Amino acid sequence: MHSSKGAFTCTLFLRIDSAGAKQSVMIIRSRFAPSPTGRLHLGHVLAARIAFSLARDSGGAFLLRHEDIDAPRVREDFYQGIEEDLEWLGLKWDGTALRQSSRIAAYEAALESLRERGLVYPCFCTRREIHDEWARMGAAPQGPEAPIYPGTCHKLTSDEQQTKLVSGLSCGWRLDSRKAHELAGPLTFRDLRFGEIPVDPDLLGDVVLVRKDIGTAYHLAVVVDDGFQQINHVTRGEDLLSSTHVHRLLQVLLGIPAPLYLHHPLMLDEAGNRLAKRCDSRSIAALRDSGLTPAQVLDLTDPPPGAAIVLS
Ligand SMILES: [Zn+2]
């Protein structure tokens, strides 16, 4: 049994292959990281199942992390619901589930480390101001899914920054992606489906690392916590592939080892839309209440779209 807070005592062990040669084999540590803002649906089951299988098939550890930093939407009964559903499905995790809400000090320390090196800057913009700036630019700079930040606060002088900070104006913190990439140099990450991918420094622009309201944001929290939980195989939906470019950069800046990635296909409904939490009829609780067994629910995600993945 591995504790999420325990020391990572052994990353490699030796296996003797059929020819009698010693091979080093990495002990896989994977995780499932849902947000307790709703009940699990079949898309979650697929994600949990892939992370679970990857770890268990190799004698590794499967960890659970509640990504509960979006406090207004989090409810205590959803933590319990997620854990009940996973246990009912037989996807039991090792150790105690980690809650991101208990990790704010770690995110603050990571931000401070970036701030000391001038790799982040305060952003005072409201959503409205960002939209106005895009309109002024004529064409918003495009990212893979949405327009990217127009760089308004990057242009502030340090005096202007100080004046705003001293006046008590609330701010988030953005990564200075250009400066960060210059420091880190060319990077790649490895995905078990897509192979070696060069990190594109301009893909997502100056992302928010700390939101005004919650003391962190997705990109920072996930990198810091995957490092803390010593996750060496990050499995998640392919919709997050573009985020990995930022995550790889943050790992270098924060001295966190690079995990292997597996960005798996998403489960879609009959209309080809991504399953969303609001599809209550597909929640695991509803499927269980309708009389399905755990095996039958797991079968609904079978064959997993990621079944063709060949681990190398
Ligand atoms: Zn701004």
Descriptive overview:
- By secondary structure, the chain is of the alpha/beta class.
- It has two domains: 1-6 and 23-101 and 267-312, HUPs (Rossmann fold); 103-230, Glutamyl-tRNA Synthetase, domain 3.
- It is built from ten helices and twelve strands.
- It has helices at residues 42-56, 76-89, 104-116, 127-137, 158-166, 177-184, 218-228, 241-254, 284-289, 294-299; strands at residues 12-16, 22-26, 29-32, 61-66, 98-99, 120-123, 172-175, 188-191, 195-198, 208-210, 233-237, 260-264.
- Strands 3-4-5 form a three-stranded parallel β-sheet. A three-stranded antiparallel β-sheet has the order 6-7-10.
- The protein starts with 11 loop residues before the first strand and ends in a 13-residue tail after the last helix.
- Residues 1-14 and 304-312 have low confidence and may be disordered.
- The protein binds zinc ion.
- The site of zinc ion has 5 residues, from loops.
Mean pLDDT: 88
Give the ordered list of helices and strands.
EEEHEHEHEHHEHEEEHEHEHH
CATH architecture of the largest domain: 3-Layer(aba) Sandwich
Number of domains: 2
Largest beta sheet: what is the strand line-up? 3-4-5
What labels would you give this structure?
312 residues, alpha/beta, Rossmann fold, Glutamyl-tRNA Synthetase, domain 3, three-stranded parallel β-sheet, three-stranded antiparallel β-sheet, 34% helix, globular, disordered N terminus, disordered C terminus, binds zinc ion
